Write the structure tokens for this entry.
Amino acid sequence: METLRRIEQLLWRGLLLCVPVAASPLLPLGSGTLTRPLAIVPAGVLLLLAGFRIIVLRQWPRLSARGFLLLGLFFAFVTLSGLLIVYAEPPILFKGQAPLGSLLRALFTLVMGVSFYTVARLHIRTPADIRITIRYLFISMTASVAVAVFQAIALAVHGEMLRLAQALTDLFAVHYQNLKDRAQGMSYEPSWLATEILALLAPALIAASISRQSAMGQPAEPGHVWRVAGGFGVAITGLLCSGSRFGLGAMIAMLVLSSIAAARRGKFLAAGALLSVLVAGGGSLFAMGQLGTGAGSSYVLGPLRYLSSSGTVDTNDPELAANLSNTLALAGRAAAAQAAVGMWLDHPLAGVSLGNGFRHFAGYAPEWFFATGAFNTGNREGAAWLDPNSPEKGNAKNMMLRLLSETGLVGFVLFFAFFLGQIFHGPATDAYHAEFRLATALALGFGYLNTDTFADPTFWIPLALCFAMNRRPQSQGETGVHAPANRQFAMARIERTL
């Protein structure tokens, strides 16, 4: 059985290394499917091995119901309510899908997400597991950022280097368009790379900075400051190369809020260190502006220049069309959000069925957005929302609004009760624990404002990390033996034994 355990450990670490590959061309899921996490392959094998342990070896995993209960209720509700809703609707095809087919596809993505969560719960149990998971996520994300740096340089140089960068990108990602002016790392678009950085790198870096600990229950090791500085360097570099406006804004908000929290606790040095990261990032943004790629591209800087102009517009400006298109893209998010809110207000309790929100966008898209002409600029995403023959789907690109519009208030409450319960159950055991779970809540909260898929491990592994940190040593509901999180708990356990 030692061999089986080692195989499972290798598969788990392989899964963590695959996390940045969110749209692998190795997974044949159809041309209209972009979210194809490569990590589902090792996750599936690990679940098969878990089944082998249960059926053949009679070894049942000790997983507490907390977390799974709310998740099970959410799954049951969206399935039953979705079936009732779609069977009351005519089976009309829209974008090649009937209502029932759309529901089943959405449930499949939810099953993928629950699979990641289950595997993470099985393999993140002890403080050592937590440290290994964070370490391997840093390794995989550093590799993705390194690819993004190469892409950003290639976009500035063009020529043969850009063709090589595109060929490298095609190995990792399925996408609608080639590299244009922003890097995407191993993910399928720049904003996805930014979301991965926020959720997988930022919480551990912020927690280590404020607590001055290497991990929960573990004091700072020699070279701690330089390792944290290097980690922030990787994260900020990745965000700058991605040129994600939302990612940059979210990181600024996280750093500012964390520095305020640190200052309120009297940790002024840590607060200053976090603010210094902002200063360094601002200087790097200026450098990116000289390259004209990533955060220095017209996609990021164009709207700022356009909106801050004096009001006189030079129609001969060759960048006018790009600036206008990029500015209207911001309005597109507002229009999508307004459509989702309108959908929810008309279907407040159960929504319009999971996975079927896109077929209602035509009826809820606001008229003011048509009037701007935004549907006819840039990538014409808005027009694709309404075209029944287009593979593009209308969506709010916002998990919170998606849950409200597609699963109603009931589904929204069930899912976020699960979300908050995983992160904040019980008091924090030390400063690292407290800062990590607060930063995780901020990172995932911002991430949910910028994406709406269940199928990405980026949003499930941090929840399992927080769950493992929140467990108490005296609770043996999962492992039978739980390593002490810190010295105080270890001493309390020894006293009880004596």
In short: Residues 474-498 have pLDDT under 50 and may be disordered.
